[in-house]
Structure formats: structure tokens, C-alpha cells
Amino acid sequence: xxxxxxxxxxxxxxxxxxxxxxxxxxxxxxxxxxxxxxxxxxxxxxxxxxxxxxxxxxxxxxxxxxxxxxxxxxxxxxxxxxxxxxxxxxxxxxxxxxxxxxxxxxxxxxxxxxxxxxxxxxxxxxxxxxxxxxxxxxxxxxxxxxxxxxxxxxxxxxxxxxxxxxxxxxxxxxxxxxxxxxxxxxxxxxxxxxxxxxxxxxxxxxxxxxxxxxxxxxxxxxxxxxxxxxxxxxxxxxxxxxxxxxxxxxxxxxxxxxxxxxxxxxxxxxxxxxxxxxxxxxxxxxxxxxxxxxxxxxxxxxxxxxxxxxxxxxxxxxxxxxxxxxxxxxxxxxxxxxxxxxxxxxxxxxxxxxxxxxxxxxxxxxxxx
Length: 369
Hints:
Helix content: 25-40%
Structural class: alpha+beta
Strand content: 25-35%
């Protein structure tokens, strides 16, 4: 005879889920009720138990628990904080094709920006996208903290979760420098060289981390009257930042170069994707996408530099968006938001890209490794 009150269901999800969660229901369970932020969702009726059940979940960031209901009572599972991404995020990634309408719109935005900029966008499920000046090297600022994170996970440095959180979620330069020291065995310069090696393995041959971030507590204004545009320790291109974000997205699916480096999907979701989804800076790409649409990204900014690169998890396929800007007078966060809004509005429906890109442009918008 089944128990009057069923045992609590077993829910042990990764912190990042793709549309559903698997739950083990015990004997005597008649209903399973997902609880998101304390609110009950539609119940799933069970014919018999014990058994495993897949529960579909809405996209978003939730405190998830599951309640098992029997004849005479109910018990709930442990609560988990999770990001639920759309199932479309697991679609096969297609090579790049030019969307002429989007290309014209981004050309106009780029020309009217008033500062040097580069753009690379693509719907990964359809391949439709566009690129403007995407192969140009820019100061990358904090965007390459995503690469530092990848290197730390790849090499299993043993860095504390708190240190990784501070570096990625809060974009803390001191935490980044400490982590470079860990990755270099006590030598931050060696750590920087190892991060550059990892970027090259991912498919970013023109990207570079030279040394730790410069952290200056000086209160007297220190100005520069002239300097080379790339007199910086962190360099990348819009295309290569896009390559990095696509590689990290594929890692969460257990595919691509990061998986070949020995990083399992479960580790990529827990250590990398989760932190990129939790980034606090919401003034650039996030400001341009519809409210509630998840974005796994990493921003970078100085007085002159504004940059952001990531994956926008739209309902009909993930969209990689990478935008970089530089000017002695300062680039614009609002420009990045406008590019993201224009790109996501066009590509959320898949885009229209019947003709493949010409050979000259294919390299700047292709899938990458």
C-alpha cells in the first residue's frame, strides 16, 4: 500500500536549465506541482510511481521547488535557484549568412555613432546576421574576464567561487588580478599568457591579455594628452568576442572547443554560463533587449571604451551580439543598447538570409571553431 503522504520529490538541477527539469517522484505521488518563486504552476498528474518526470518550465530566473501531492498530504523538494533558458537554445548552430535588411540598419547605426565601433551579430539557429568593422582590434577592457574565467575552469585552478563571482558578476579588477596570479602559479604575467593561449585555442588569434589590470587609487586627476589607440593590455575584435561567446554557449551543451579542452557541460553551466547570466551591468546589451529575455554576457568599459558581448536567449534561437566602441571623447552605452535592440528585433524571428555570405565576408560572420 502506498504511503498516505508521498516522499518529497528529488530535484537536483544544474543552475542553468534548457526549458525543463527532471524530477524523481516517489511512491504514492499523484500530482507534481512546480513552485517558482513560491507560486504554484500547473500541476502534472502521474499515473503511477515511483518514476522520473520531465517538467516544462518558463524562461527566467527562479527559485524552484517541486511539491509532491498524494491522497492525504504533500511534501516539497529542496529549493534551488536556477536560470531557465528556452529549449531553442539547444538548436544546431548554423554558419553565418548575411541578412541584408539588418546589415543596412547596422551600417546606418555605425555610421551615425560618432566614434569608432565594430559590430557582430548572428542568430545561431538560422545563421542570419550582420557585421560592421567586426575584424578591427579594440581595447577589450573587462570583456576578456570571460576568457580569464574560461581559463580558470579549464585549468582547474581551484580558485574560490567567491573570487570568480567578484571577477565576472561584479567585474572587480582586483579579483581578476588575483585570479591571474593563481592561474600563473603566483605570477600574474604568466597567468595572462595562459589566458591568451586559451583564447587562441578557442579561435581568437588576434586577442591578447598582456598583464594584470591597472588599479590606481590616485585621487589627483591623471590625464593623457596623446597615446596609441591600442596602448592597452586587453585586445580583441567584435568577431573574436563573438567567437568566445559562441564557444561558451556550445560548452554548456557539451560541444565545441571548450568541451575538447576537457570541460564537461555540467561544469560549463555551473561555473561559466551561470556567472555570465548573473553579470550586474545591465546598461548595454541587456538595456536593448525585451524585459525578461536572458542574456549571458560580459561587459567592458573605461572612459574611452564601451563594449559588451554575449548570447541573447530569444525564443526562436540564441543570438550572439558583440559590440565594441572607442573614442578619446568616450564611446556610448546607449549605442550598444540600440544595436542590441535592432538586432534582436530583426533576428528574434530568425531573420531573412537566403544568400550565403561572399567569401570576403564569410570569415567575419562564420560560426568559428
